[in-house]
Amino acid sequence: MTKQVQQLDRVIIRFAGDSGDGMQLTGDRFTQETAAFGNDLSTLPNFPAEIRAPAGTLPGVSSFQLHFADHDILTPGDAPNVLVAMNPAALKANIGDLPRGADLIVNTDEFTKRALAKVGYAGNPVEDGSLSEYHVHALPLTSMTVTALADFDLSKKDAERAKNMFALGLLSWLYHRPTEGTISFLEKKFGKKPEIMKANIAAFQAGWSFGETTEAFSVSYEIKPAEQKPGLYRNITGNVALSYGLVAAGVQSGLPIYLGSYPITPASDILHELSKHKRFGVRTFQAEDEIAAVGAALGASFGGSLGITTTSGPGLALKSETIGLAVATELPLLVIDVQRAGPSTGLPTKTEQADLLQAMHGRNGEAPVPVIAPRSPSDCFDAALEAARIAVEYRTPVILLSDGYLANGSEPWQLPDVDALPKIEPGFAEPGQEDFQPFKRDPETLARPWAIPGTPGLEHRIGGLEKADGSGNISYDPSNHDRMVRLRQAKVDGIAAGIAPLAVDDPSGEAKVLVLGWGGTYGAISAAVRRIRKAGGQIAQAHLRHLNPFPANIAEVLRSYDKVVVPEINLGQLALLLRGRYLVDVISYNQVRGLPFKAEELAGVIQDVIDSE
Fold this sequence. Notes:
globular; alpha/beta; 19% strand; 6-stranded mixed β-sheet
Protein backbone atom coordinates (compact mmCIF):
# COMPACT_ATOMS: atom_id res chain seq x y z
CA MET A 1 0.00 0.00 0.00
CA THR A 2 1.45 3.35 -1.05
CA LYS A 3 0.91 6.01 1.59
CA GLN A 4 0.87 9.74 1.23
CA VAL A 5 3.81 11.72 2.64
CA GLN A 6 2.91 15.20 3.87
CA GLN A 7 5.53 17.94 4.34
CA LEU A 8 5.41 19.89 7.63
CA ASP A 9 7.61 22.71 8.85
CA ARG A 10 7.35 21.78 12.54
CA VAL A 11 5.72 19.32 14.96
CA ILE A 12 5.25 19.18 18.73
CA ILE A 13 4.92 15.66 20.16
CA ARG A 14 4.23 14.75 23.78
CA PHE A 15 4.76 11.22 25.10
CA ALA A 16 2.83 10.67 28.35
CA GLY A 17 2.33 7.67 30.59
CA ASP A 18 2.90 6.22 33.99
CA SER A 19 6.27 6.98 35.55
CA GLY A 20 7.20 3.32 34.96
CA ASP A 21 6.27 3.36 31.27
CA GLY A 22 9.62 4.66 30.04
CA MET A 23 8.36 7.96 28.63
CA GLN A 24 11.60 9.80 29.36
CA LEU A 25 13.62 7.12 27.58
CA THR A 26 11.17 7.12 24.66
CA GLY A 27 11.29 10.89 24.34
CA ASP A 28 15.05 10.97 24.65
CA ARG A 29 15.53 8.37 21.91
CA PHE A 30 13.14 10.21 19.58
CA THR A 31 15.07 13.40 20.34
CA GLN A 32 18.46 11.84 19.61
CA GLU A 33 17.27 10.55 16.24
CA THR A 34 15.73 13.93 15.45
CA ALA A 35 19.01 15.67 16.26
CA ALA A 36 20.89 13.18 14.08
CA PHE A 37 18.45 13.90 11.24
CA GLY A 38 19.32 17.59 11.42
CA ASN A 39 16.14 19.23 12.69
CA ASP A 40 16.29 22.10 15.13
CA LEU A 41 14.67 21.01 18.36
CA SER A 42 13.78 21.88 21.95
CA THR A 43 12.56 19.52 24.66
CA LEU A 44 10.62 19.66 27.93
CA PRO A 45 10.82 16.58 30.17
CA ASN A 46 8.22 16.61 32.96
CA PHE A 47 8.21 13.89 35.59
CA PRO A 48 7.06 13.22 39.16
CA ALA A 49 9.22 14.01 42.17
CA GLU A 50 8.56 10.59 43.69
CA ILE A 51 10.93 7.79 42.73
CA ARG A 52 7.88 5.64 41.94
CA ALA A 53 4.57 7.43 42.31
CA PRO A 54 1.42 5.25 42.65
CA ALA A 55 0.79 3.55 39.31
CA GLY A 56 -2.04 4.90 37.21
CA THR A 57 -2.56 8.08 39.24
CA LEU A 58 -2.38 11.70 38.11
CA PRO A 59 0.63 12.48 40.36
CA GLY A 60 2.43 9.54 38.73
CA VAL A 61 2.19 10.83 35.16
CA SER A 62 5.50 11.35 33.36
CA SER A 63 5.71 13.19 30.05
CA PHE A 64 8.26 14.29 27.49
CA GLN A 65 7.53 17.03 24.96
CA LEU A 66 9.62 17.56 21.84
CA HIS A 67 9.32 20.44 19.39
CA PHE A 68 11.26 19.92 16.15
CA ALA A 69 11.30 21.90 12.93
CA ASP A 70 12.97 22.72 9.63
CA HIS A 71 13.85 26.19 10.96
CA ASP A 72 15.22 27.86 14.06
CA ILE A 73 12.96 27.36 17.10
CA LEU A 74 13.26 28.66 20.64
CA THR A 75 10.89 26.70 22.90
CA PRO A 76 9.49 23.18 23.40
CA GLY A 77 6.19 24.55 22.11
CA ASP A 78 3.03 25.77 23.82
CA ALA A 79 0.76 22.84 22.93
CA PRO A 80 1.39 19.41 21.35
CA ASN A 81 0.17 18.54 17.87
CA VAL A 82 0.40 14.88 18.86
CA LEU A 83 -0.26 13.31 22.27
CA VAL A 84 0.65 9.70 22.95
CA ALA A 85 -1.33 8.68 26.08
CA MET A 86 -0.33 5.32 27.49
CA ASN A 87 -3.08 5.21 30.15
CA PRO A 88 -6.15 7.15 31.42
CA ALA A 89 -4.07 9.19 33.88
CA ALA A 90 -1.80 10.38 31.07
CA LEU A 91 -4.82 11.34 28.99
CA LYS A 92 -6.53 13.24 31.79
CA ALA A 93 -3.35 15.05 32.89
CA ASN A 94 -2.53 16.25 29.37
CA ILE A 95 -5.74 16.53 27.35
CA GLY A 96 -6.24 20.13 28.47
CA ASP A 97 -3.13 21.17 26.54
CA LEU A 98 -4.20 19.49 23.30
CA PRO A 99 -5.64 21.88 20.68
CA ARG A 100 -8.70 20.96 18.64
CA GLY A 101 -7.84 18.82 15.62
CA ALA A 102 -4.66 17.42 17.14
CA ASP A 103 -3.71 13.75 16.85
CA LEU A 104 -4.29 11.58 19.90
CA ILE A 105 -2.78 8.10 20.09
CA VAL A 106 -4.30 6.13 22.96
CA ASN A 107 -3.22 2.77 24.39
CA THR A 108 -6.67 1.21 24.79
CA ASP A 109 -5.36 -1.83 26.68
CA GLU A 110 -4.85 0.34 29.76
CA PHE A 111 -8.36 1.88 29.67
CA THR A 112 -9.88 -0.63 32.08
CA LYS A 113 -12.75 0.20 34.43
CA ARG A 114 -10.41 0.22 37.39
CA ALA A 115 -7.83 2.48 35.68
CA LEU A 116 -10.56 4.87 34.52
CA ALA A 117 -12.14 5.05 37.97
CA LYS A 118 -8.75 5.70 39.60
CA VAL A 119 -8.49 9.08 37.84
CA GLY A 120 -12.19 10.00 38.03
CA TYR A 121 -13.51 8.99 34.62
CA ALA A 122 -17.16 7.85 34.90
CA GLY A 123 -17.00 6.30 31.44
CA ASN A 124 -14.42 5.52 28.78
CA PRO A 125 -13.59 8.78 26.93
CA VAL A 126 -12.30 6.81 23.95
CA GLU A 127 -15.78 5.35 23.43
CA ASP A 128 -18.23 7.98 24.70
CA GLY A 129 -17.55 10.66 22.08
CA SER A 130 -15.91 13.13 24.47
CA LEU A 131 -12.76 13.12 22.31
CA SER A 132 -14.58 13.87 19.07
CA GLU A 133 -12.72 17.14 18.44
CA TYR A 134 -9.43 15.24 18.10
CA HIS A 135 -8.11 12.75 15.56
CA VAL A 136 -8.16 9.70 17.83
CA HIS A 137 -6.09 6.61 17.05
CA ALA A 138 -7.26 3.98 19.54
CA LEU A 139 -4.62 1.25 19.51
CA PRO A 140 -4.05 -1.76 21.81
CA LEU A 141 -0.35 -0.98 22.13
CA THR A 142 0.29 -3.32 25.06
CA SER A 143 -1.33 -6.40 23.53
CA MET A 144 0.24 -5.71 20.13
CA THR A 145 3.63 -5.60 21.84
CA VAL A 146 2.98 -8.88 23.67
CA THR A 147 1.91 -10.51 20.39
CA ALA A 148 5.03 -9.23 18.62
CA LEU A 149 7.20 -10.79 21.34
CA ALA A 150 5.36 -14.11 21.58
CA ASP A 151 8.39 -16.07 20.36
CA PHE A 152 10.69 -14.66 23.03
CA ASP A 153 11.31 -16.38 26.34
CA LEU A 154 9.74 -13.55 28.35
CA SER A 155 6.99 -13.33 30.92
CA LYS A 156 3.91 -11.37 29.91
CA LYS A 157 4.94 -8.61 32.34
CA ASP A 158 8.42 -8.31 30.81
CA ALA A 159 6.96 -8.28 27.31
CA GLU A 160 4.51 -5.50 28.28
CA ARG A 161 7.41 -3.34 29.43
CA ALA A 162 8.53 -3.01 25.81
CA LYS A 163 5.35 -1.17 24.79
CA ASN A 164 7.22 2.13 24.89
CA MET A 165 9.57 0.77 22.20
CA PHE A 166 6.55 -0.25 20.09
CA ALA A 167 5.19 3.29 20.43
CA LEU A 168 8.63 4.72 19.59
CA GLY A 169 8.80 2.57 16.46
CA LEU A 170 5.35 3.72 15.36
CA LEU A 171 6.17 7.41 15.85
CA SER A 172 9.54 6.94 14.19
CA TRP A 173 7.77 5.63 11.09
CA LEU A 174 5.11 8.32 11.25
CA TYR A 175 7.70 11.12 11.22
CA HIS A 176 10.45 9.48 9.14
CA ARG A 177 12.99 9.30 11.96
CA PRO A 178 16.20 7.28 11.54
CA THR A 179 16.27 3.91 13.31
CA GLU A 180 19.93 2.90 13.35
CA GLY A 181 20.80 4.97 16.42
CA THR A 182 17.99 3.52 18.53
CA ILE A 183 18.92 -0.05 17.60
CA SER A 184 22.56 0.65 18.50
CA PHE A 185 21.43 2.23 21.76
CA LEU A 186 19.35 -0.84 22.70
CA GLU A 187 22.22 -3.18 21.80
CA LYS A 188 24.50 -1.25 24.14
CA LYS A 189 21.99 -0.69 26.94
CA PHE A 190 20.91 -4.33 27.18
CA GLY A 191 24.14 -5.93 25.94
CA LYS A 192 24.41 -8.07 29.08
CA LYS A 193 20.79 -9.24 28.71
CA PRO A 194 20.59 -10.54 25.13
CA GLU A 195 16.96 -11.70 25.32
CA ILE A 196 15.77 -8.34 26.67
CA MET A 197 17.84 -6.55 24.03
CA LYS A 198 16.40 -8.59 21.17
CA ALA A 199 12.88 -8.17 22.54
CA ASN A 200 13.12 -4.39 22.72
CA ILE A 201 14.56 -4.20 19.22
CA ALA A 202 11.78 -6.49 17.97
CA ALA A 203 9.12 -4.32 19.66
CA PHE A 204 10.63 -1.19 18.11
CA GLN A 205 10.67 -2.77 14.66
CA ALA A 206 7.15 -4.11 15.13
CA GLY A 207 5.90 -0.59 15.87
CA TRP A 208 7.58 0.66 12.70
CA SER A 209 6.09 -2.17 10.63
CA PHE A 210 2.64 -1.58 12.08
CA GLY A 211 2.76 2.06 10.97
CA GLU A 212 3.90 1.00 7.52
CA THR A 213 1.14 -1.58 7.00
CA THR A 214 -1.88 -0.45 8.98
CA GLU A 215 -4.78 1.47 7.48
CA ALA A 216 -5.07 3.46 10.70
CA PHE A 217 -2.36 5.83 9.41
CA SER A 218 -2.77 6.67 5.76
CA VAL A 219 -0.36 9.62 5.92
CA SER A 220 3.18 9.94 7.25
CA TYR A 221 4.98 13.21 7.78
CA GLU A 222 8.33 14.62 6.79
CA ILE A 223 10.08 17.57 8.41
CA LYS A 224 13.19 18.54 6.50
CA PRO A 225 16.49 19.29 8.27
CA ALA A 226 16.93 22.85 9.49
CA GLU A 227 19.41 25.20 7.87
CA GLN A 228 22.19 25.77 10.39
CA LYS A 229 25.64 27.28 10.39
CA PRO A 230 28.26 24.83 9.13
CA GLY A 231 29.91 22.88 11.91
CA LEU A 232 29.71 19.80 14.10
CA TYR A 233 26.56 19.59 16.23
CA ARG A 234 25.26 17.38 18.98
CA ASN A 235 22.13 17.34 21.08
CA ILE A 236 22.87 18.48 24.63
CA THR A 237 21.05 19.11 27.91
CA GLY A 238 21.80 22.08 30.12
CA ASN A 239 23.39 20.00 32.88
CA VAL A 240 25.74 18.26 30.45
CA ALA A 241 26.62 21.55 28.72
CA LEU A 242 27.35 23.11 32.11
CA SER A 243 29.56 20.15 33.03
CA TYR A 244 31.52 20.51 29.80
CA GLY A 245 31.89 24.23 30.50
CA LEU A 246 33.43 23.42 33.88
CA VAL A 247 35.83 20.93 32.30
CA ALA A 248 36.78 23.55 29.72
CA ALA A 249 37.34 26.07 32.52
CA GLY A 250 39.83 23.70 34.11
CA VAL A 251 41.69 23.26 30.83
CA GLN A 252 41.66 26.97 29.97
CA SER A 253 42.91 27.98 33.41
CA GLY A 254 45.33 25.11 33.91
CA LEU A 255 43.69 24.43 37.27
CA PRO A 256 42.57 21.06 38.65
CA ILE A 257 38.76 20.92 38.96
CA TYR A 258 37.38 19.81 42.31
CA LEU A 259 33.65 19.26 42.72
CA GLY A 260 32.28 18.92 46.24
CA SER A 261 28.64 17.99 45.88
CA TYR A 262 25.67 16.46 47.63
CA PRO A 263 23.04 14.90 45.31
CA ILE A 264 19.91 17.03 44.87
CA THR A 265 17.32 17.28 42.11
CA PRO A 266 17.76 18.74 39.50
CA ALA A 267 21.53 19.29 39.88
CA SER A 268 22.71 15.71 40.44
CA ASP A 269 23.45 15.06 36.76
CA ILE A 270 26.36 17.52 36.94
CA LEU A 271 28.01 15.36 39.61
CA HIS A 272 27.34 12.25 37.52
CA GLU A 273 28.76 13.82 34.36
CA LEU A 274 31.88 15.35 35.92
CA SER A 275 32.74 12.04 37.57
CA LYS A 276 33.34 10.65 34.05
CA HIS A 277 36.13 13.13 33.22
CA LYS A 278 39.04 12.27 35.49
CA ARG A 279 41.38 12.38 32.49
CA PHE A 280 40.90 16.17 32.44
CA GLY A 281 42.06 16.53 36.04
CA VAL A 282 38.53 16.54 37.46
CA ARG A 283 38.01 15.18 40.95
CA THR A 284 34.51 14.64 42.32
CA PHE A 285 33.55 14.17 45.96
CA GLN A 286 30.05 13.14 47.04
CA ALA A 287 29.81 14.62 50.52
CA GLU A 288 27.55 13.59 53.39
CA ASP A 289 25.60 16.86 53.23
CA GLU A 290 25.43 20.27 51.54
CA ILE A 291 27.61 22.01 54.14
CA ALA A 292 30.39 19.45 53.87
CA ALA A 293 30.23 19.68 50.08
CA VAL A 294 30.80 23.43 49.91
CA GLY A 295 33.41 23.25 52.66
CA ALA A 296 35.38 20.70 50.69
CA ALA A 297 35.12 22.83 47.54
CA LEU A 298 36.35 25.95 49.33
CA GLY A 299 39.20 23.96 50.86
CA ALA A 300 40.17 22.81 47.38
CA SER A 301 40.29 26.42 46.21
CA PHE A 302 42.48 27.32 49.18
CA GLY A 303 44.79 24.54 48.04
CA GLY A 304 45.04 25.86 44.47
CA SER A 305 42.24 24.05 42.64
CA LEU A 306 39.10 25.49 41.13
CA GLY A 307 36.56 24.56 43.79
CA ILE A 308 32.99 23.97 42.61
CA THR A 309 29.82 22.94 44.40
CA THR A 310 26.44 22.09 42.84
CA THR A 311 23.02 22.30 44.43
CA SER A 312 19.47 23.58 44.19
CA GLY A 313 17.61 26.16 46.28
CA PRO A 314 17.43 24.27 49.61
CA GLY A 315 21.14 23.46 49.38
CA LEU A 316 22.06 27.03 48.54
CA ALA A 317 20.51 28.09 51.84
CA LEU A 318 22.59 25.53 53.73
CA LYS A 319 25.78 26.64 51.98
CA SER A 320 25.32 30.32 52.83
CA GLU A 321 27.74 30.50 55.76
CA THR A 322 30.58 28.90 53.80
CA ILE A 323 29.87 31.13 50.80
CA GLY A 324 30.25 34.04 53.21
CA LEU A 325 33.57 32.56 54.31
CA ALA A 326 34.66 32.50 50.65
CA VAL A 327 33.72 36.20 50.44
CA ALA A 328 35.81 36.98 53.52
CA THR A 329 38.81 34.90 52.49
CA GLU A 330 38.47 36.13 48.89
CA LEU A 331 39.01 32.77 47.25
CA PRO A 332 37.55 31.55 43.94
CA LEU A 333 34.51 29.29 44.34
CA LEU A 334 31.83 28.31 41.85
CA VAL A 335 28.37 27.69 43.29
CA ILE A 336 25.99 26.15 40.74
CA ASP A 337 22.34 26.54 41.77
CA VAL A 338 19.97 24.64 39.47
CA GLN A 339 16.79 26.30 40.67
CA ARG A 340 13.58 24.39 41.35
CA ALA A 341 10.13 25.23 42.65
CA GLY A 342 9.94 25.93 46.38
CA PRO A 343 9.69 26.87 49.18
CA SER A 344 11.25 24.10 51.25
CA THR A 345 11.16 20.82 49.30
CA GLY A 346 8.46 22.37 47.09
CA LEU A 347 8.19 20.75 43.66
CA PRO A 348 11.64 19.19 43.22
CA THR A 349 11.24 18.19 39.55
CA LYS A 350 9.57 21.44 38.40
CA THR A 351 11.29 24.62 37.27
CA GLU A 352 11.36 28.09 38.84
CA GLN A 353 13.69 31.09 38.97
CA ALA A 354 12.96 32.24 42.49
CA ASP A 355 16.46 32.06 44.00
CA LEU A 356 17.68 35.39 42.63
CA LEU A 357 17.24 37.36 45.85
CA GLN A 358 18.74 34.49 47.84
CA ALA A 359 21.78 34.52 45.54
CA MET A 360 22.08 38.29 45.85
CA HIS A 361 21.48 38.72 49.56
CA GLY A 362 21.21 35.30 51.26
CA ARG A 363 24.21 35.70 53.56
CA ASN A 364 24.91 37.47 56.82
CA GLY A 365 26.80 40.74 56.72
CA GLU A 366 27.77 42.65 53.61
CA ALA A 367 28.76 39.68 51.46
CA PRO A 368 28.49 40.62 47.76
CA VAL A 369 28.72 37.77 45.27
CA PRO A 370 28.68 37.95 41.44
CA VAL A 371 25.63 36.24 39.93
CA ILE A 372 25.22 35.09 36.34
CA ALA A 373 22.52 33.05 34.56
CA PRO A 374 22.53 31.05 31.30
CA ARG A 375 19.62 31.55 28.91
CA SER A 376 19.36 28.16 27.15
CA PRO A 377 20.59 24.57 27.59
CA SER A 378 23.56 25.06 25.25
CA ASP A 379 24.35 28.49 26.75
CA CYS A 380 25.11 26.72 30.04
CA PHE A 381 28.54 25.89 28.55
CA ASP A 382 29.48 29.52 27.97
CA ALA A 383 27.94 30.68 31.25
CA ALA A 384 30.03 28.14 33.19
CA LEU A 385 33.20 29.38 31.50
CA GLU A 386 32.29 32.98 32.28
CA ALA A 387 31.53 32.18 35.90
CA ALA A 388 34.88 30.43 36.26
CA ARG A 389 36.70 33.39 34.69
CA ILE A 390 35.18 35.83 37.14
CA ALA A 391 35.78 33.56 40.15
CA VAL A 392 39.44 33.00 39.32
CA GLU A 393 40.44 36.44 38.10
CA TYR A 394 38.59 38.37 40.81
CA ARG A 395 39.14 35.89 43.69
CA THR A 396 35.50 35.62 44.61
CA PRO A 397 32.72 33.09 44.93
CA VAL A 398 30.33 33.25 41.95
CA ILE A 399 26.78 31.91 41.90
CA LEU A 400 25.52 30.53 38.59
CA LEU A 401 21.71 30.35 38.43
CA SER A 402 20.53 27.64 36.07
CA ASP A 403 17.05 26.09 36.47
CA GLY A 404 15.25 22.79 36.04
CA TYR A 405 13.94 23.67 32.58
CA LEU A 406 17.44 24.42 31.27
CA ALA A 407 19.03 21.52 33.15
CA ASN A 408 16.80 18.79 31.71
CA GLY A 409 15.82 20.43 28.42
CA SER A 410 17.92 19.90 25.31
CA GLU A 411 18.73 21.54 22.01
CA PRO A 412 21.36 21.27 19.25
CA TRP A 413 24.76 22.64 20.26
CA GLN A 414 27.47 23.56 17.81
CA LEU A 415 30.75 22.34 19.23
CA PRO A 416 32.99 25.34 19.82
CA ASP A 417 36.43 25.90 18.39
CA VAL A 418 38.53 24.84 21.36
CA ASP A 419 41.43 27.06 20.30
CA ALA A 420 39.13 30.09 20.41
CA LEU A 421 37.94 29.55 23.98
CA PRO A 422 39.03 32.32 26.38
CA LYS A 423 42.08 31.80 28.52
CA ILE A 424 41.68 32.16 32.28
CA GLU A 425 44.70 33.43 34.20
CA PRO A 426 44.99 32.17 37.81
CA GLY A 427 47.79 34.64 38.60
CA PHE A 428 49.24 32.75 41.57
CA ALA A 429 51.47 34.72 43.89
CA GLU A 430 55.18 34.24 43.21
CA PRO A 431 57.15 32.33 45.89
CA GLY A 432 59.98 33.76 47.91
CA GLN A 433 58.54 37.22 48.46
CA GLU A 434 59.73 39.42 51.30
CA ASP A 435 57.03 40.88 53.53
CA PHE A 436 54.25 39.11 51.60
CA GLN A 437 50.94 41.01 51.88
CA PRO A 438 48.08 38.50 51.32
CA PHE A 439 45.50 41.28 50.94
CA LYS A 440 47.49 43.69 48.81
CA ARG A 441 45.19 44.11 45.82
CA ASP A 442 45.61 44.22 42.08
CA PRO A 443 44.90 47.88 41.23
CA GLU A 444 42.73 46.90 38.23
CA THR A 445 40.63 44.01 39.60
CA LEU A 446 41.07 44.61 43.35
CA ALA A 447 41.73 40.86 43.63
CA ARG A 448 44.10 39.76 46.36
CA PRO A 449 47.02 37.38 45.61
CA TRP A 450 46.18 33.67 45.41
CA ALA A 451 48.84 32.06 47.57
CA ILE A 452 49.17 28.26 47.58
CA PRO A 453 49.59 26.96 51.15
CA GLY A 454 53.06 25.63 51.85
CA THR A 455 54.77 27.98 49.39
CA PRO A 456 57.90 29.45 51.03
CA GLY A 457 57.47 33.13 51.80
CA LEU A 458 53.70 33.17 51.26
CA GLU A 459 52.62 32.15 54.75
CA HIS A 460 49.49 34.02 55.84
CA ARG A 461 46.43 33.85 58.08
CA ILE A 462 43.12 32.56 56.76
CA GLY A 463 39.66 32.39 58.33
CA GLY A 464 36.35 34.14 58.75
CA LEU A 465 37.35 36.90 61.15
CA GLU A 466 37.85 40.34 59.63
CA LYS A 467 41.27 40.94 58.19
CA ALA A 468 43.47 44.00 58.28
CA ASP A 469 43.81 45.62 54.90
CA GLY A 470 47.05 44.46 53.31
CA SER A 471 48.52 42.23 56.02
CA GLY A 472 45.45 40.02 56.50
CA ASN A 473 45.98 39.95 60.27
CA ILE A 474 42.86 39.72 62.42
CA SER A 475 41.46 43.20 62.96
CA TYR A 476 38.64 44.59 65.07
CA ASP A 477 39.32 48.17 64.06
CA PRO A 478 36.02 49.86 63.01
CA SER A 479 37.61 51.95 60.26
CA ASN A 480 39.38 48.92 58.82
CA HIS A 481 36.13 46.92 58.77
CA ASP A 482 34.38 49.73 56.93
CA ARG A 483 37.23 49.88 54.42
CA MET A 484 37.27 46.10 53.84
CA VAL A 485 33.49 45.96 53.35
CA ARG A 486 33.70 48.71 50.74
CA LEU A 487 36.70 47.13 49.02
CA ARG A 488 34.92 43.78 48.64
CA GLN A 489 31.87 45.57 47.24
CA ALA A 490 34.01 47.66 44.89
CA LYS A 491 35.70 44.50 43.62
CA VAL A 492 32.34 43.01 42.62
CA ASP A 493 31.10 46.30 41.18
CA GLY A 494 34.28 46.56 39.13
CA ILE A 495 33.49 43.34 37.28
CA ALA A 496 31.03 45.37 35.20
CA ALA A 497 33.96 46.99 33.40
CA GLY A 498 35.00 43.62 32.00
CA ILE A 499 31.63 42.38 30.73
CA ALA A 500 29.80 43.23 27.53
CA PRO A 501 27.17 45.99 27.63
CA LEU A 502 23.54 44.90 27.61
CA ALA A 503 22.61 44.29 23.97
CA VAL A 504 19.15 45.40 22.81
CA ASP A 505 17.36 43.81 19.85
CA ASP A 506 15.29 46.67 18.40
CA PRO A 507 15.35 46.28 14.60
CA SER A 508 13.36 49.39 13.73
CA GLY A 509 14.66 51.56 16.54
CA GLU A 510 11.10 52.82 16.96
CA ALA A 511 9.86 50.52 19.73
CA LYS A 512 8.39 52.17 22.81
CA VAL A 513 8.28 48.99 24.91
CA LEU A 514 11.23 46.85 26.02
CA VAL A 515 10.93 43.26 27.24
CA LEU A 516 13.76 42.43 29.64
CA GLY A 517 14.34 38.89 30.86
CA TRP A 518 16.95 36.74 32.54
CA GLY A 519 17.80 33.05 32.67
CA GLY A 520 15.60 30.35 31.17
CA THR A 521 12.79 32.70 30.10
CA TYR A 522 14.82 33.65 27.01
CA GLY A 523 13.22 31.15 24.64
CA ALA A 524 9.61 31.97 25.51
CA ILE A 525 10.26 35.74 25.47
CA SER A 526 12.05 35.54 22.11
CA ALA A 527 9.27 33.44 20.59
CA ALA A 528 6.67 35.93 21.88
CA VAL A 529 8.66 38.82 20.41
CA ARG A 530 8.77 37.03 17.05
CA ARG A 531 4.98 36.69 17.07
CA ILE A 532 4.46 40.37 17.79
CA ARG A 533 6.87 41.48 15.06
CA LYS A 534 5.36 39.05 12.57
CA ALA A 535 1.99 40.68 13.24
CA GLY A 536 3.51 44.12 12.55
CA GLY A 537 4.18 45.21 16.14
CA GLN A 538 7.21 47.17 17.33
CA ILE A 539 8.93 45.65 20.35
CA ALA A 540 12.48 45.68 21.75
CA GLN A 541 14.10 42.81 23.62
CA ALA A 542 17.09 42.45 25.95
CA HIS A 543 18.24 39.58 28.13
CA LEU A 544 20.52 39.69 31.15
CA ARG A 545 23.29 37.18 31.75
CA HIS A 546 25.06 39.19 34.46
CA LEU A 547 22.77 39.92 37.40
CA ASN A 548 25.42 41.10 39.84
CA PRO A 549 26.89 43.37 38.81
CA PHE A 550 24.48 44.49 36.13
CA PRO A 551 26.00 45.60 32.81
CA ALA A 552 27.28 49.17 32.98
CA ASN A 553 24.73 50.49 30.46
CA ILE A 554 21.60 49.01 32.01
CA ALA A 555 20.31 52.30 33.42
CA GLU A 556 20.62 53.93 30.00
CA VAL A 557 18.76 51.03 28.36
CA LEU A 558 15.92 51.05 30.90
CA ARG A 559 15.38 54.80 30.51
CA SER A 560 15.39 54.62 26.71
CA TYR A 561 11.91 53.09 26.58
CA ASP A 562 8.52 54.30 27.72
CA LYS A 563 7.70 50.97 29.33
CA VAL A 564 9.75 47.95 30.41
CA VAL A 565 8.12 44.54 30.86
CA VAL A 566 9.96 41.98 33.01
CA PRO A 567 8.55 38.42 32.83
CA GLU A 568 9.82 36.12 35.60
CA ILE A 569 8.96 32.69 36.99
CA ASN A 570 8.83 34.17 40.49
CA LEU A 571 6.87 37.00 42.09
CA GLY A 572 9.01 39.81 40.70
CA GLN A 573 12.54 39.50 42.10
CA LEU A 574 14.47 41.10 39.24
CA ALA A 575 11.75 43.75 38.97
CA LEU A 576 12.28 44.60 42.65
CA LEU A 577 16.02 45.04 42.12
CA LEU A 578 15.56 47.21 39.04
CA ARG A 579 12.97 49.44 40.72
CA GLY A 580 15.10 49.87 43.82
CA ARG A 581 18.37 50.55 42.05
CA TYR A 582 17.30 52.53 38.97
CA LEU A 583 13.95 54.03 40.02
CA VAL A 584 12.29 52.71 36.87
CA ASP A 585 8.73 51.49 37.38
CA VAL A 586 9.05 48.28 35.39
CA ILE A 587 5.94 46.22 34.62
CA SER A 588 6.31 42.83 36.29
CA TYR A 589 4.62 39.76 34.81
CA ASN A 590 4.89 36.65 36.95
CA GLN A 591 3.76 33.03 37.06
CA VAL A 592 5.00 30.26 39.34
CA ARG A 593 3.38 27.08 38.01
CA GLY A 594 6.54 24.97 37.90
CA LEU A 595 6.48 25.26 34.09
CA PRO A 596 8.10 27.57 31.53
CA PHE A 597 6.11 30.47 30.08
CA LYS A 598 4.10 29.81 26.95
CA ALA A 599 5.03 32.05 24.03
CA GLU A 600 1.43 32.77 23.06
CA GLU A 601 0.57 33.80 26.59
CA LEU A 602 3.57 36.16 26.82
CA ALA A 603 2.82 37.65 23.41
CA GLY A 604 -0.67 38.55 24.62
CA VAL A 605 0.68 40.21 27.76
CA ILE A 606 3.29 42.21 25.84
CA GLN A 607 0.77 43.23 23.18
CA ASP A 608 -1.56 44.55 25.89
CA VAL A 609 1.28 46.78 27.15
CA ILE A 610 1.98 48.02 23.61
CA ASP A 611 -1.70 48.75 23.04
CA SER A 612 -1.89 50.76 26.28
CA GLU A 613 0.70 53.23 24.95
